[in-house]
Amino acid sequence: MNVGLKQETGTASPSPQAQTLDRNGVQVGLVVTALGVLYLIYLAIYLPFLPMAGGTVGHDYGLHFPNLLTGFYWHLQNGLFAIPWFSPSQCGGFPYFPDPNVAYFSVPQFLVFVVSPIQAVQFTFLLFSLIGLVGCYILMRCGFRSSRVAAVLAAGLFLFNGFFTARMLVGHLTFHAFALTPLMIAALLPRLPDCRESRQPRFRLARAGFAVRACIAALCLAYMFQSGMVHGIPPVLLATVIIVLIHTLCFGWNWQPWLLLVAAGLLSLALCAGKLVSELALLSNFPRDDYPLPGIVSLWTAIRAILQALFLSPPGDAAEIVTNSMWLLERHEWEYGVSIGAALVLVAAFVARRRHLEPLATDRMFVLCGILLLLLLPIAINWYQPTWNGLLKSLP
Fold first, then answer.
1. C-alpha to C-alpha distances, 305 to 16, 117, 330, 350, nearest whole angstrom
2. Across the strands, what pairs with 323?
3. pLDDT one-digit tens code per residue, 333-359
4. Domain end: 286, 309, 329, which one?
5. Is the Cα torsion angle 220, 221, 222, 227 positive or negative in sign?
6. How many CB atoms lie within 10 A of CB 4?
7. Alpha-carbon gap, residue 235 to 229, rounded angstroms
8. Within a domain: residue 4?
9. What is the total count of domains within the chain?
10. Do residues 268 and 308 both lie within one domain?
11. Are residues 238 and 322 in the same domain?
12. Whole-number pLDDT of residue 201
């Protein structure tokens, strides 16, 4: 009896499943802490610039603050669901909603309905930098099955990228939607689960997931357009295709990302149809045939300038190397950097893995060539050679 009682009341050792859950809980806590520390450091560095000492802000907010106030007064008079097609408050009257720089249906505009424009910009900066950080972590963990450490590192590199930060500080408010890019791509990439369900339940789950992922990607893409990031969408789509091809190189061909991208594109067009049609109607009255296409004077200089801007700092000779331009491209126009840290990570990864590299199969070699060609596309577009420049200028 005594022995049996001891066995019943004795403390049982944790099961392997419980130990695994405990370890995962600790690791998730460490990830949240690491991301939180990165986020707080980022805000401590850059949030004081919105506004700076003396209450000043980046000069290009001189365009967006009047637009935000126009939307605010329209909302006071007409409510939320009336579209402000025209505004008499600027330039003696001008089409408001069709203006590509107007972001009436956007987070900063809705925030202006309840707070001041500068507070709306601050909250937008806080929100979208956090979305970019978390979105990049999700992209690495769910899309590429990376380790938690690698995902945190990638998220930190994306958070501190110069493109988003510089443009938010200088006043390019329409580019705040750029932070949605990792989340959009994560929605496109197929999950890599290790599930054991039967074919039928798995098919239903995949079908439901497909619809949800398509909607998430479409909402991100539609918001980019509605928020005014019109000329930023082609580079985002280029980056999306490259990352999907990298996923193919790592895990093999999968039709889902491409079908999801098409579905998301069609759905986003439907969500943006009103603004798209009105913008095209407005811009048809302002042809840009006389606008020269700038470029960098030599191919080697273009490669050097792009690599320098990406991994070091904007080139100091930017004003001299650009030709055929009507305006000076200042430093903030060259802010695309992800720091020297990203380059060191790439080199270290190659050195660590070079002994394990195997010859690529023919299909994967084609994928790698496609990635390299797409990476060369920005260099080719920004290289100035008279005949090549004329060909680019002749394109629609």
1. 54, 36, 14, 23
2. 295
3. 899 999 998 999 989 888 887 777 777
4. 286
5. positive
6. 8
7. 11
8. no
9. 2
10. no
11. no
12. 45
Range of the domain at 366: 293-396
DSSP 8-state code for residue 199: H
Residue 348: inside a domain: yes
Q: Residue with structure tokens 């989340």?
A: 183
Please, what is the end-to-end C-alpha distance for the chain in angstroms?
A: 91
Tokens (6 digits) for 356: 């394990």
pLDDT digits (tens, 9 = 90+) for 129-157: 999 999 999 999 999 999 999 999 999 99
The reply to whether 229 and 303 lie within a common domain is no
- Structure tokens belonging to residue 157: 């590199």
* Residue 47 amino acid letter: L
If asked whether residues 161 and 245 sit together in one domain, one would say yes
Residue 218 is assigned to a structural domain of this protein: yes
Q: Are residues 115 and 256 in the same domain?
A: yes
Three-state SS annotation for 336-383:
CCCHHHHHHHHHHHHHHHHHHCCCCCHHHHHHHHHHHHHHHHHHHHCE
- Based on the domain organization, do 208 and 319 belong to the same domain? no
Pull the structure tokens for residue 289: 């045939």
How far is 151 from 141, CA to CA, in rounded Å?
Answer: 6
Q: What's residue 291's pLDDT? A: 83
Q: DSSP per residue over 224-289, as a string? A: HHHTT-GGGHHHHHHHHHHHHHHHHHHH---SHHHHHHHHHHHHHHHHTHHHHHHHHHHHTTS--T
Q: What is the CA radius of gyration of the chain?
A: 25
Q: What are phi and psi of 294, to 5 degrees?
A: -70, 165
Q: Which residues of the chain carry a pLDDT beneath 50?
A: 1, 4-8, 194-206
